[in-house]
Structure formats: structure tokens, C-alpha cells
Specification:
The chain has 359 residues and is α/β, with parallel strands linked by helices. The chain is built from 16 helices and 11 strands.
Length: 359
């Protein structure tokens, strides 16, 4: 049991403005970016580095200190953030903000909220920011390295005082939240270049966790591939195909610059491309076959792959739709968003015979 000290954790104090934030956001967990559905049990992998990261995550979840998740894009930083939240305070809100995806002109009001009339287009009555909404729970700031330098000082003050003031406001409001940040950048180098505040970095990195890239988790690649394959087919209601040894060999040798997220997308592509119960190398996306770490056999295969014409792609789409619907022309036409007469005409044009095996 990791959180043996959970019972002794100080209770989160309630702010004195229940009639505002809590009344307005009583259903905060239904807002976009406020759901934490993952736990540590959902983290797939048995390699030493990922298990060490999970062990640290579970230990750090029992603390109130700030956690900094460091890792390349696609390594599962938000999955870790949600897991820490669900072990630390699952009853509270989980508010996620992507600092890189939020326009620079809006990130201040997004984080700190605003009062009525503070700028053109402001909602009547104002609006609480994500920091207010995270009260009693967890605030997850993803891509913290992209936060504008001028806002870093404001965030630092909030972390020190646990007080937040809305844009255009005149009074501070008390907040109490657990902060988790994540980055795929080297914040230490950014500090040296005066792009990131040193004092904020040390405030954020009290409990750092480094998430390994997939290329350093070679033993987990096959395990993750099969997990994504089974999970996707189960949701779609399809029989689960297998990976041929050649296809799995290529998958294992790929560098996966996009990490686990890229691997998942590749598996989904392969499932929707294959027309048999065995995923072959030519069912894999081109970026996997083009990977320079692939062996000579895959290289020879790639040399035979040519750019598909629109007609070739259309023919493949029709074959795939017929296969997925067990040769039900009406359902296949609906899947392709064309009429049945058009589908029959194209089947005749491309000489497609309905001999697909039913999955």
C-alpha cells in the first residue's frame, strides 16, 4: 500500500467564496479538461525504467509537493498526471491546461479568470480561471516550457501565496490545489538562455519524474502493440488479428520518435488496412517502413512500395469497407458515405469481387 500516510494528510481548506466559484462550477468535473480517468494500473510496461517511474509516481502521489514530469511528446505525461491525481485526491477536480496550445493572448485569462467588463468580449459576470477551478484538486500545466515569461512571475506568486486575482479584479481569492507540470523541453537550458525563470523552475521541480522514450523501452514495444490491438478491436467489435513475425520485427526495430502515441496510431492504421487475420509488413504505415533502423528485409519491401494513386486508394477503401461489413453493400456504402448504386458501379469499375473473409 503506497499511501499509508493518506489518513494523516491535512485536509484541504475550503475558500471563503463558496457562493462564487463553487456555485458556478459545482459540476466542474463535467468541463472539458477536468476528467481524470487513468490510474497507475493503466500504465502498460514491464521495462525497468517505466516501472521505476511508476514507483516514483505512486510515492510522490502521497505528498503535497509539486511534481514535474519530464519526457518527450507521446511518453504518457498526462497519463501519469491523472494517475497521481486519482491516488492523491480523486474526489477533487482535475484541471488540465496545455500552455503550448493556448494562444498567448488568452493564456492569462484562461489561467487566472477575469471580471466582467475587463476586456471586449468578456462574459457578463466574469469567469473563473483554471486555477480557481482546480481548488480542492489538481492543476495540470502541460508544456510548461511554453508559458510566456511575463506570466511565470505571476504563477510563482500564486504558488507561494495560494492567492489568485482575476484579470480586471481588485481582490485576491484563496486557492488550494496540487500542481503537476510537464515538459518535453530542457528547462535548465532555457534558464541559461533567460527563457524560463530560475525561481519558478526550482518551485516546480521539487519532485521530478523522467519518463523514458519508447526506444529505451524495447521490451515493452511488443506488449504495447498487442495491448492496443486488442483494445481497439474490442471497442470496434472485431475479431483480433495477429501480427506476423515480420511485421512485429519491423515494429520492434522502429525508433518511434512519437513514442507510445505514435505506436498506438500505427497499430490502429494496421488494423484498418489489413484484410486478413494476420497483420503483414505492408499493412503498416509508411513511416514505420521508412524508419532507418528497419532491417534489410523491410528495406527491400519498402523499395517495392510506390505512391498510390487516388484510384488505388479508392479501391482499397471499398475493399476494406466490404470486409468490415461482411460484404453488406448497404452498410459498406453508408460507411463510405456514397450511394449503393455508386458503390456497385465502382465495384464493377475496379473489378472487385466480394470474396472477403468475414472477421
Amino acid at each position: 500500500m503506497y499511501c499509508r500516510q493518506a489518513a494523516a494528510r491535512p485536509s484541504i481548506t475550503q475558500p471563503n467564496y463558496q457562493t462564487t466559484v463553487e456555485a458556478i462550477d459545482a459540476r466542474v468535473t463535467n468541463r472539458p479538461g477536468s476528467l481524470a480517468t487513468f490510474s497507475f494500473d493503466d500504465i502498460i510496461g514491464e521495462s525497468e525504467r517505466i516501472r521505476n517511474a511508476v514507483t516514483l509516481g505512486k510515492r510522490f502521489a502521497c505528498s503535497r509537493e509539486n511534481v514535474l514530469l519530464i519526457g518527450e511528446s507521446g511518453t504518457g505525461k498526462e497519463l501519469f498526471a491523472q494517475s497521481i491525481h486519482n491516488l492523491y485526491c480523486p474526489e477533487g477536480p482535475f484541471i488540465a491546461v496545455n500552455c503550448a496550445a493556448t494562444p498567448r493572448s488568452l493564456i492569462e485569462s484562461e489561467l487566472f479568470g477575469y471580471e466582467a467588463g475587463s476586456f471586449t468580449g468578456a462574459e457578463r459576470g466574469g469567469r473563473p480561471g483554471k486555477i480557481e477551478l482546480a481548488n480542492g484538486g489538481t492543476l495540470f500545466l502541460d508544456e510548461i516550457g511554453d508559458m510566456p515569461l511575463e506570466l511565470q512571475a505571476v504563477l510563482l506568486r500564486v504558488l507561494e501565496d495560494k492567492l489568485v486575482m482575476r484579470v480586471g479584479g481588485r481582490r485576491y481569492k484563496q486557492v488550494n490545489f496540487r500542481l503537476i507540470t510537464a515538459t518535453n523541453k530542457n528547462l535548465e537550458k532555457m534558464m541559461q538562455a533567460d527563457l524560463f525563470r530560475e525561481d519558478l523552475y526550482f518551485r516546480l521541480s521539487v519532485l521530478p519524474i523522467e519518463l523514458p522514450p519508447l526506444r529505451e523501452r524495447a521490451d515493452d514495444t511488443e506488449r504495447l502493440s498487442k495491448y492496443f490491438l486488442n483494445s481497439y478491436c474490442k471497442k470496434a467489435g472485431w475479431n483480433v488479428p495477429e501480427f506476423s513475425s515480420e511485421a512485429m520485427n519491423i515494429i520492434n526495430k522502429c525508433k518511434w520518435p512519437g513514442n507510445v502515441r505514435q505506436l498506438k496510431n500505427a497499430v490502429i492504421y494496421a488494423v484498418n488496412t489489413t484484410q486478413s487475420d494476420m497483420i503483414q509488413p505492408d499493412d503498416l504505415p509508411a513511416f514505420v517502413l521508412n524508419n532507418d533502423t528497419v532491417g534489410s528485409a523491410a528495406g527491400r519491401l519498402q523499395e517495392a512500395v510506390t505512391v498510390q494513386t487516388i484510384k488505388q486508394m479508392e479501391r482499397l477503401a471499398i475493399q476494406n469497407a466490404l470486409y468490415r461489413t461482411a460484404n453488406d453493400v448497404a452498410r459498406a456504402a453508408k460507411m463510405l458515405d456514397i450511394g449503393r448504386a455508386t458503390l456497385y458501379r465502382k465495384m464493377k469499375e475496379y473489378e472487385i469481387n466480394m470474396k472477403c473473409n468475414v472477421r
